[in-house]
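Bench notes, afternoon.
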Amino acid sequence: MSTHTFFLGGSSPDGFRTHFGDIVNDTDFHTYIIKGGPGTGKSTLMKKIAAAFDGDKEVYLCSSDPSSYDAVVLKERKAVILDGTSPHVFEPEYAGAVQEILNLGQCWDSGKLERQKGEIIVAHRNYSLHHLRCRRYLSAASSVIGDTLAITEAALDIPKLEAFSQRLLKKLVPHKKDGEGRLSYKQISAVTPEGYRTILPENDTVYLLNDVNMAATDSFLRKFSELLRNKGYDTEISECLLMKDSFFEHMRVPEAGISFISANRLNGVTVENKKPLNFARFYKKEVLTAKKTRLKFNSSVSAELTEEAVKCLVSAKTAHDKLEEYYIGAVDFKKADKICKELTQKIKS
């Protein structure tokens, strides 16, 4: 029995980004999509559901408020419970057969909310504006980081990196399994009101990729993931959401109990009891030296822009907390708790 924790997704230059739709549309699972306003008990319901079941579980946190749940996956029960409201709106594709809507809106007093319409509209607009500003700062940071990657990718010693990948593969997974491994996306890093946060795996052997220049990380993880899948091993990829294009930041190999966690200027990751891998050796030093001033400038600017984005998320959370107050005062939580108990029994049966 184990519980693995991820983010559902996170803020990016293009708004909220997530791969959770792959799970929602997996026809082997039954997904309950919760609808309802802020403060109606969506996260509380999911926490109660998670606590009611043993077995392997996946918990997905809200990057805008890591104390809240955005989804729970009960793997042995083949059940998914998901917050399907903005910014991660989900609708049933196979309504009733694979997904169904759980409406917590039936628990609120619409008359009371309508009497506070003006205040609710103001609070909601403030919340949206803070997220819009966050996206703008992340877009600017992404452009600067993109310039850094253009420099560092040109400095990569690809043959040396690929030779290292082959040696490491033989060391970690000497035997091939039957079939082809699958690639999936599980987000463990995101920009949050607490900063750029990474959820570290608890029981894995962790290889820490020390790579301030970042380009070698993406190149290695793409190649190594392919090699592992050719040997029959599934891989879980966590992308860096600050990039406009797909960028592999971390990787987990569940069956081998191994994780590769990158440490760079953006995420500031430190891991105890890790196996460090120095990725500085995979760059041509003369290329980096020639661009040293520009790289230093880019590092400073991207860090400041990311910090401003974090401040926007702090302001957005304050606005969201205010918005929740109106709904909390208008919700019949006894009715919401009854829905939770009925859903628990439904999943058990």
